[in-house]
Amino acid sequence: MKKVNVVFGTIYGSAQFTAETVTTAIEKLGFTAKLWQPNELSGFVPPQDELLIVVSSTTGEGDIPDDISPWFNELKYSAPYLPSLHYSLIGLGDSSYDTFCGAIKQFDQLLAELGAKPLTERLEIDACETMEPEIEAQTWIASWHHAVTSENVV
């Protein structure tokens, strides 16, 4: 099975806890998963023969959290071509703002510009509807797993 890289950007810790929950669930399915801490991401270019999951909250005016923005900018400016990379995105936000899940939408746009392909539809978790985003993400793992096996990317 392919290795899964899980990357997160967080403000108050919810995205980190969600990423940890997702990583544990993926490992229970038999995948090897690496949860990257934001301070470990300098120079990291997701290997195209592995899968990528990005979990991010949104700050300010739809901005990427400070802990992961250096990596986002590094990818943006180095612009590695990633046509064989398959990715999934989990965004945490508050739908009472116009910039709901703005950070994960920016990741989606960047990864698409780099040639990567979405494996699943973007999961956007609304803080107005749930206080436990990790529960929604854990439920989402079933559709992620189905996409991985049906797309033959394992």
Report on this structure.
The mean pLDDT is 91. The longest helix is centred in the C-terminal third of the chain and has 18 residues, at 133-150. Helix 1 packs across helix 4 (133-150). The chain has helices at 14-28, 69-78, 102-113, 133-150, and strands at 3-9, 32-36, 51-57, 86-93, 117-118, 123-126. By secondary structure, the chain is of the alpha/beta class. 36% of the residues are buried. Strand 1 (3-9), helix 1 and strand 2 (32-36) form a beta-alpha-beta unit. The chain has a single domain, classed as Flavodoxin domain (Rossmann fold), CATH 3.40.50.360. Strands 1, 2, 3, 4, 5 and 6 form a six-stranded parallel beta sheet that branches. It is globular.
Shape: globular
According to CATH, the fold-level topology is: Rossmann fold
Biggest sheet architecture = 6 strands, parallel
Which segments are poorly predicted (pLDDT under 50) over 5 or more consecutive residues? none
